[in-house]
Amino acid sequence: MRLPGTAARIALCAGACLALGAVCAQARPSIAQYDEPKYPAGFTHFDYADPTAPSDGKLSFQNFDELQSYDSLNPFLVRGAPAPDIQHLMFDTLMQRSWDELASEYPLIADDVEVAPDLGSATFHINPAARFSNGDPITAADVKYSFDTLTSPKASPLFNAQFSVIKSATVIDKNTIRFEFKHAERDAALIAGDLPIFSPKWGMRADGTRLPFDQIANEPPIASGPYLIESRKNDKQITYRRNPDYWAANLPSRRGMFRFASITFKLYRDHYTQLEAFKAGDTDVLVEYSATQWARKYVGKNFDNGLLKKGEFADGPAQMQGLLMNLRKPMFQDPRVRHALTMAFDYDWMNRMMFYGQYRRTSSYFAASPFGATGMPGPKELALLEPLRADVPPEVFGPMLKQPTTIAPDSLRGNLRVARDLLAQAGWHYRDGALRDANGTPMTIEIMDDQPGMDRLILPYMQALGMLGIQAHMREIDSALYQKRLDNFEYDMTTFIYPPVTIPGAELTRRFGSAAASEVGSENYPGVRSKAVDSLIHSALSADNLDDLEAATRALDRVLIYSFYIVPEYYAPGARIGYKSTLGHPDKVPTTYVYEDWVIDYWYRKTPAAQTASSTAATAATAH
After folding, report:
1. Residues of CATH 3.40.190.10 domain(s) within the chain?
2. What is the pLDDT of residue 403?
3. Between the chain's N and C termini, which has fewer beta carbons within 10 Å?
């Protein structure tokens, strides 16, 4: 909520251009990477929020982010497993992104931002009303402390990579901070707006000394966000309660959010136990990622009597899920080997026999979005690809790759013959009972995973690899060890999901940039080191308009797909959520969203009258 002084400052900017990169440089309450923000300065709430929804009640949630246990209250470290959703619930960012636009941000801790005409810097003004949970005002110095800490060796390198475009942060006055950028990129100001803010007093001892940041593990955070920690139960359960003094509750970017007075996360060791706990009514909601479970197991008396419901909700851009190959391993260096491994994956059989036809085949890193490549490259794509011709597969200049199919007249046997020939071209031949290189070394692949249900997917794939003479085996480990091995690149192959984004940006550098390939804890899990990929990422980040961005990401998509860094799997066209009928949600679903966070942020506990009406309707429908 703006103070009179802030309102006056905004009034001075009336008529100012709203799109980034415009000639003017005036403070404005919202910014968009391209075009103008959807919501005007006087908006009251996001369209997908319901500000009239009840704001009490409790939510009991299942595992979050595949966690089976946690051992840290600090989500910014590379060590340990952080408590479920703690970063989101306890740490606000400078600005709030909307979920129904490509890339726009609105006031939160910062009440306005001024972007330099050359895009070289952005100056944020901190709302004087902003407070930490201990009552301290949030100042520009706190913002600088947060930035300096997250980009230091004491924090996870993921954050250093996320904010790598920022060169420095300078405190102008108590409520004003300026970020200087290393490069003039259109999304740089929005990246700065994504900065989570925490207090320098977090981890401070009674004598005034402070623990080193990387040793702050079990001290409850001094929150800048809407929730506090109410209780903990060993490493399997944690309850957050809404801060009654949360200063931002009535900001337009927060109105209609966080309707639960308390949220409890219960962590289970396996999905079977999760589902049975939900069906018994022990938890309120379960986001389902198994097609088989959704098709066959969401039944029983509590579904029959109307206590539990199944809901399918539309979604935006799709994730990229697949079996990624670690190119740091010599056997994966040759792209013909990687291509061969994609030919052995029988998606069509799996979708028909195991997934009840619920999935769609992944064929792009930007599936179900305008940023993915299709057909032949257009003129703008060719203009970007032509200077890179010597460094990219020649196929990128032709039609986009179609993933192998086993629908007649095609077959797995035919695909394996293609794979055999590719392996032979790369110097791998079957002899003495195994596929061997010129030195006689057999190809042995360990496929690592931490989800028990994935064996149904991996075992048929291993069987197909065995027909090629490849000795493949699966290693299932717990989530903490899995993350440690992932961070240190200690794997051959593993199933991985690149979460979707509404508009590609800085995450491209973290996921596929050459510099990130050798950074422990980075997101470049395949180990991509390619001058061509780096060049196309740079083109995407420096695009001046959406047409240029689409051309750059489509060209990048072609290079990534034809480089065969990952065996593409599948994606679901929307969210599958089981929930108690006592829960409600806004009528309008966001364009793109994290399923769990949508429930936590915008759902609510119905009033008793609404619950009675819903139960009566369910009973009548069942009787009918």
Report:
1. 4-43+92-197, 238-315+573-623
2. 95
3. C
Q: Yes or no: is domain 4-43+92-197 CATH 3.20.20.140? A: no
Question: What per-residue confidence (pLDDT) applies to 512?
Answer: 97
Among 449, 431, 536, which residue's Cα sits nearest to residue 486?
A: 449
Q: pLDDT per residue over 402-424, tens digit each?
A: 999 999 999 999 999 999 999 99
The beta strands (E) that lie in 319-380 are given as 320-325, 360-361
Residue 4 reports pLDDT greater than 60: no
Q: How far apart are the C-alpha atoms of 538 and 518, rounded to whole Å?
A: 19
Q: What is the largest CA-CA distance in the chain?
A: 82
Give per-residue pLDDT as tens, 182-197.
Answer: 988 889 999 999 999 9
Placement of tokens 């790759």 in the chain? 401
Which amino acid would we find at residue 321? Q
What is the average pLDDT across 497-503? 88
Give 511-520 pLDDT, tens digit per residue: 999 999 998 8
As a whole number, mean pLDDT of residues 230-234 equals 92
- Cα angle 530-531-532, degrees, rounded to a multiple of 5: 90
Rounded to the nearest integer, the mean pLDDT of the chain is 91
Does the domain spanning 320-571 belong to CATH 3.10.105.10?
yes
Instruction: Work out the average pLDDT over 169-189.
Output: 95
Rounded Cα distance between 524 and 528, Å, is 7
Tally of residues, the chain: 624
Predicted confidence (pLDDT) per residue in 303-331, tens digit: 999 999 999 998 888 889 999 999 999 99
DSSP H stretches of helix in 542-607: 546-563, 595-602
> Quick check: 223 and 146 in contact, CB under 8 A?
no
3-class DSSP assignment, residue 153:
coil
CATH 3.40.190.10 fits 238-315+573-623, yes or no: yes
Cα–Cα dist 174/138, whole Å: 9
Element (H, E) at 612: helix 608-623
Among 36, 30, 28, CA closest to 11: 28
Q: Distance (Å, rounded) from C-alpha 160 to C-alpha 513?
A: 14
Residue at token pair 């006031």: 107
Buried b (16+ CB within 10 A) or exposed e, 14-38: eeeebebbeeebbbbbbbbbbebbb
